[in-house]
């Protein structure tokens, strides 16, 4: 509902600005703008049709991503919160190791490493990215052909928290939908 209101307000602002700009009435310019807007609307409609619509997923659930890289489904299989990985201790309180599965449901070749840049938030809304310690896990790497599945892990360092939110596509609403998994520390193995 909020997205619909935001879309309507944005449309009204764009319409008002476009109508008030009397110096830009060149027919070629208007044709290009119309084509660009139609393309953008089609792409946004495609992304919106696969959004989770504020649905929060849990461990074991599958969500569908559609972005500039392609279409793929992500399943969070298992989450482990631990004090060390391969005898390394975190700079923060804990390591959060997430086992996942990515299935290429589109028709383009995907690279697993491109798909796993994601964010983990704690109960205080502090965000961490999964950029470090990749050499200590079964990293999600390699090509994923259409119809194929790739499994692996992503790893975060984070603060102690009663719950976490794992978000794919965060901050990328113009080129991707957003998927959110919510899990408590108790739900992690």
From TrEMBL:
<dbReference type="InterPro" id="IPR029050">
    <property type="entry name" value="Immunoprotect_excell_Ig-like"/>
</dbReference>
<protein>
    <recommendedName>
        <fullName>DUF4352 domain-containing protein</fullName>
    </recommendedName>
</protein>
<dbReference type="InterPro" id="IPR029051">
    <property type="entry name" value="DUF4352"/>
</dbReference>
<feature type="domain" description="DUF4352">
    <location>
        <begin position="69"/>
        <end position="168"/>
    </location>
</feature>
<keyword id="KW-0732">Signal</keyword>
<feature type="signal peptide">
    <location>
        <begin position="1"/>
        <end position="20"/>
    </location>
</feature>
<dbReference type="Pfam" id="PF11611">
    <property type="entry name" value="DUF4352"/>
</dbReference>
């Amino acid at each position: 509902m909020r997205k619909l209101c935001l879309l309507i307000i944005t449309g009204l602002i764009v319409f008002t600005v476009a109508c008030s700009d009397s110096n830009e009435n060149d027919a070629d310019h208007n044709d290009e703008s119309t084509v660009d807007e139609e393309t953008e609307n089609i792409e946004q409609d495609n992304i919106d049709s696969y959004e989770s619509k504020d649905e929060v997923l849990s461990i074991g659930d599958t969500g569908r991503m559609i972005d500039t890289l392609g279409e793929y489904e992500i399943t969070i299989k298992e989450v482990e919160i631990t004090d060390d990985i391969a005898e390394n201790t975190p700079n923060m309180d804990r390591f959060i190791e997430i086992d996942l599965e990515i299935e290429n449901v589109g028709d383009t070749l995907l690279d697993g490493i491109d798909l796993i840049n994601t964010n983990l938030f704690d109960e205080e809304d502090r965000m961490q990215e999964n950029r470090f310690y990749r050499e200590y896990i079964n990293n999600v790497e390699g090509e994923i052909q259409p119809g194929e599945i790739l499994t692996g892990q992503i790893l975060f360092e984070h603060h102690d928290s009663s719950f976490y939110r794992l978000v794919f596509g965060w901050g990328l609403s113009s080129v991707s939908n957003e998927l959110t998994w919510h899990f408590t520390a108790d739900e992690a193995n």
